[in-house]
Amino acid sequence: MMKRSLLCALLLAMTAIPAGAASLVKTYSYFSIGGSTLDDIETQLSKHGPQVKSTGSRHPGATQMAFTTRISYARQAGSCRIADAAVTVKVKVILPEWRRPRNADADVKLFWDTLSADIKRHEERHVEIAKNHARKLEEALKATYPRKDCDAAKAKAAQITATVLAEHDRAQVQFDRVESVNFESRILRLLRYRIERIESGQLRPPA
Q1: If you write DSSP's letter for every residue of 121-175 in order, what string do you get?
Q2: Rounded to an integer, what distance in angstroms lies between the CA atom of residue 181 and that of residue 196?
Q3: CB neighbour class for 63 (10 Å; exposed up to 12, middle 13-18, buried from 19)
Q4: What does pTM read for this prediction?
Q5: What is the percent of the chain where pLDDT is above 90?
Q6: Residue 54's pLDDT is what?
Q7: In this predicted structure, what is the pLDDT of residue 118?
Q8: Letter string b/e over residues 151-175, b meaning 16 or more CB atoms within 10 A of that residue's CB
Q9: What average pLDDT does this structure show over 85-95?
Q10: Considering the chain, what is the average pLDDT of its residues?
Q11: Does residue 2 have a pLDDT over 60?
Q12: CB-based burial of residue 145 (10 Å sphere; 0-12 exposed, 13-18 middle, 19+ buried)?
């Protein structure tokens, strides 16, 4: 099932940084597949799809993620606090691109359009989960109380970061688990919906 590779990097810095909400930097990468039948496409996805390190398997799509947290501290008499925090999550979404042969049946084209749209939706949801947790991490860091010194403030920041990123990982795994269970019924439902739209003239048949 579509999964993602999580590469979480944490950088703690004491430099001054501008205030603002958690930011997202997103890029896309594509891999090509061929084939003229559903079996061909399945084989191609298994052969050329991105390999996820956590499973060692290849998948129809993947999202690589890296969290970067920059923190500035303010020293005061007898205390130190987090003056500001900025969290950036960089994601790379990897999606399949089918080289449609001329002899591919209309049913195969319809299935591919449905499947590829669902793969993209799935990966975009991974991105949304990551961005939500980046925002949560930033807000949690900014809400901390002053500590006795900056070493204690840094330790608290590291604890908060570890907790939120662990929550993020669990949320991603749970999302994949639910999507995997519902995959077949979801694709069939989406296919029926596309067919109904084509028959009613609301959607053009696949080229």
Answers
A1: HHHHHHHHHHHHHHHHHHHHHHTPPPBSSHHHHHHHHHHHHHHHHHHHHHHHHHH
A2: 25
A3: buried
A4: 0.83
A5: 67
A6: 65
A7: 94
A8: eebbebbeebbeebbeebbeebeeb
A9: 96
A10: 87
A11: no
A12: exposed
Q: Which two tokens stand for residue 42?
A: 């399945």
Residues 6+ apart with CB under 8 A from 75: 150
Task: Report which residue type is found at 41.
Answer: I
DSSP letters spanning 44-77: HHHHHSPEETTTTEE-S-EEEEEEEEEEEEEEET
How far, in Å, CA of 166 to CA of 205, rounded? Answer: 44
d(CA 101, CA 198): 22
For the CA atoms of the chain, what is the radius of gyration? 22
List the strands of the sheet with 23-33, edge to edge. Answer: 5-6, 62-76, 79-98, 23-33
Residue 126 reports pLDDT greater than 60:
yes
What DSSP designation does 41 have?
Answer: H
Helix axis angle for 183-199 and 150-181, nearest 10°, is 60
